[in-house]
Amino acid sequence: MDSGIGIHYRDLAIGLKLRGNDVEVFHLPYDLTTSRSWFFQGIPIHSIGLNNPKIPYFMGIGKLCKLFKFFHFFEASQLFSKPKRKFQNLNRAKPFDVIEASSNRGVAYGVSTLVERPPIFTRVSTLMNQAFNSEDCVAGLNHKIAAWFEKKQIHKSEFRVTHTQSHASLVTDLIHLKQNDFSIIPHGITNSKFVSKDYPKPKSSKILKVLFVGKSEYRKGFDTLITSIPQIIKEFPLIQFDICGTGEMNEKAESDFHRLGLQNVFFHGYKSRSSLELFYSECDIFVAPSRYESFGIIYLEAMRHSKPIIACNTGGTPEVVSHGKSGLLIDPGNPSQLTKAIIDLAKNKALRKSMGINGKDRIKKKFSMEKLLDVTFMHYKKISLN
Questions:
Q1: Same domain for 164 and 176?
Q2: pLDDT of 63 over the 80 cut
Q3: What is the distance between the alpha carbons of residues 319 and 159, in angstroms, rounded to a whole number?
Q4: Residue 362 belongs to what domain range?
Q5: Which of these, 37, 118, 324, 329, could form a disulfide with 313 (CB 3.0-4.6 Å)?
């Protein structure tokens, strides 16, 4: 549950539970092959495993299955059938009133095909086809089927919501819906329980810290950042870059920086959401130059710690980060603009402080968890009564 979507649903489930509602979570991880159930803060969690097929171990049959691309359909078929069966069994014992679902991978498409079921409330994030296009890659057949499930689930849902107006406009064009088919409910974020005094202070207060959190991939603008770093360090030597996240670009970037003799770029790899609080707390500038974000919960996480943001003027980001007030927005894929934005903020402590204050205030006004819970529950009641 360390992804942006995972964090959103964790906090939403906890908030609804604390308000006296019965909540159950169906979890379809990418890498789990064993189904299991457990409780998290009193909430039943059902992880639904997608098993590996055993047919390849039988002589002859495995080759025949490969010929007919059986394995390309196997994962998608489980993605359709397993959540459907699990929901049917639990719903018979104790009927649900509303199904809240992510659009990702069409995890609730199987459930949406049931004749007798409660209304489905789908929260639409970045579509799989958007991700494929931004990475300029050829999707496998399993992923293409999941993308089709995603589209069909959104169409079959009784209520559709997304987090920014910009993303709603784009999605309606991509999957042929009307603009008024979507309601806008921005993500919310809880107050941080992190206390910075519990952690050691940086060794030198003269070093300015820039933090990046995310996958080292093209869609996240990681290539833009690593292209900018050598010039930034040349113009502002007392700067440190902390890069948190995994991805295919990390190894090459680390090797290139080592070859250039750049000692103040640190690759920390995967960090849990809780351990990231230290990095957010100690950084001076947060940068995430994504080419597309439907929203970007990472911006809220940094703003919660009163940090100025550098992001891109694309997707839903301008509705989250206010340019000139809580951060700076640049054109996507523009290293020179990113270089200038980081150096400008690095040289202006007063601007960094004011943007940090404005960002935290913006969360209170627009992106609080209380507001998200209020609006979401209001829509639950509305659709369950129809």
A1: yes
A2: no
A3: 22
A4: 196-366
A5: 329
Of 117-126, 198-207, 292-301, 313-322, least confident by mean pLDDT is: 198-207
Q: With bands split at pLDDT 50, 70 and 90, how would you rate the model's confidence at 204? A: low
CATH assignment of the domain containing 295: 3.40.50.2000
Q: What is the SS3 string spanning 218-248?
A: CCCCHHHHHHHHHHHHHHCCCEEEEEECCCC
Measure Cα distances from 224 to 118, 265, 279 in Å.
45, 15, 21
Amino acid sitting at position 320: V
Q: What is the pLDDT of residue 200?
A: 44
Round to whole Å and give the CA distance between 357 and 380: 34
How many angstroms separate the CA atoms of 38 and 198, rounded?
Answer: 31
Distance between CA 313 and CA 9 in Å, rounded?
26
Stated length of the chain: 386
Residues 248 and 337 in one domain: yes
Rg (CA), the chain: 22
DSSP 251-319: HHHHHHHHHHT--SEEEEE---HHHHHHHHHH-SEEE---S--SS-HHHHHHHHTT--EEEESSTTGGG
Q: Residue 199's pLDDT is what?
A: 43
- Please indicate, yes or no, whether residues 160 and 243 belong to a single structural domain of this protein: no
For residues 324 and 225, give the distance between their C-alpha atoms in angstroms, rounded to a whole number. Answer: 20
| β pairing state of 43-47 and 159-162 | unpaired
The phi and psi torsions of 126 (rounded to 5 degrees) equal: -60, 125
Give how far Cα 17 sits from Cα of 44, 185, 328, 383, Å: 11, 19, 37, 19
- Distance in angstroms (rounded) separating the CA atoms of residues 150 and 124: 9
Quote the mean pLDDT of the chain.
Answer: 88
pLDDT given for residue 384 in this prediction: 77
100 in Cβ contact with 121 (< 8 Å): yes
Q: For residues 143 and 105, give the distance between their C-alpha atoms in angstroms, rounded to a whole number.
A: 8
Sheet of 159-162: strand order equals: 99-102, 120-123, 159-162, 182-184
Strand-pairing partners, residue 287, are 310
SS3 93: helix
Q: What is the tally of structural domains in the chain?
A: 2
Tokens of 185: 């409910």
